[in-house]
Amino acid sequence: MIPDDILIEAHHFWCGHLPSKDYFPAEKAGIWFERSDATDAQIFSIFGPFLDAVAANDWPVDQLDRAEAIGLVIMLDQFPRNIFRDDGRAFAYDATARRHARALVESGVERFALIERCFLYLPFEHSEDIADQEFSVALYEALLGDAPAAQADTYRNYLDFAIKHRDLIRRFGRFPHRNAVLGRENTPEEAAFLAEHGRGY
């Protein structure tokens, strides 16, 4: 049984209150970018029991409100990376997240806040398909173009990360840093890259 408000709760946990489309919830940045066992445990406790049910549910994405739509993507793309950190299961929900994200992008992104669009686009940045990666870069370029001048550096940083992800897929066809948890053997080039650069972004 999926709680009726689980997607809203996921959105609120990750994004907080967004009073305007260009509001940046700096108070939430710590849970996005800083590795924390406490945050991982909290996400597992609140959302972990419903992750598989949310992934399996046939969501009418065109009927979800703004927060529900973004909460769905966050739950399937972001939360598995916290719940299954350093585990191949972190990527098990990516295809489903990407399918929902694509439907939402195709329905029009104008209704979403800028920071919501950052998380809406991440399933494409996380993909090992080059077409998804090129799409990701194009989306983040458009997002930067829509950002207020005062926030340009913030959204340029998101674009820079998208470009770095795209360039890794162009070079290797996959993310080398995932090889260990997915049971994939590194090529000599990948091993050398990982030794010198780590994740590469």
Largest sheet: none
> Can you write the helix and strand succession as a string?
HHHHHHHHHHH
Number of domains: 2
Radius of gyration: 17 Å
Uncertain runs: none
| Average pLDDT taken over every residue | 97
Shape: globular
Strand percentage: under 5%
Structural class: mainly alpha
Number of strands: 0
Helix content: 55-70%
Note the gap between the termini.
Answer: 38 Å
Q: Determine the number of helices (DSSP H or I, runs of at least 4 residues).
A: 11
Describe this structure in words.
- This protein is mostly helical and 201 residues long.
- The mean pLDDT is 97.
- Helix 1 packs across helix 5 (66-83) and helix 5 (66-83) crosses helix 7 (114-125).
- It folds into two domains: 1-10 and 25-112, no CATH class; 127-201, Tetratricopeptide repeat domain (Serine Threonine Protein Phosphatase 5, Tetratricopeptide repeat, Alpha Horseshoe), CATH 1.25.40.10.
- The longest helix is centred in the C-terminal third of the chain and has 21 residues, at 152-172.
- 63% of the residues lie in helices and 0% in strands.
- It is globular.
- The protein has helices at residues 6-15, 29-33, 37-47, 51-56, 66-83, 94-106, 114-125, 130-146, 152-172, 179-182, 188-197.
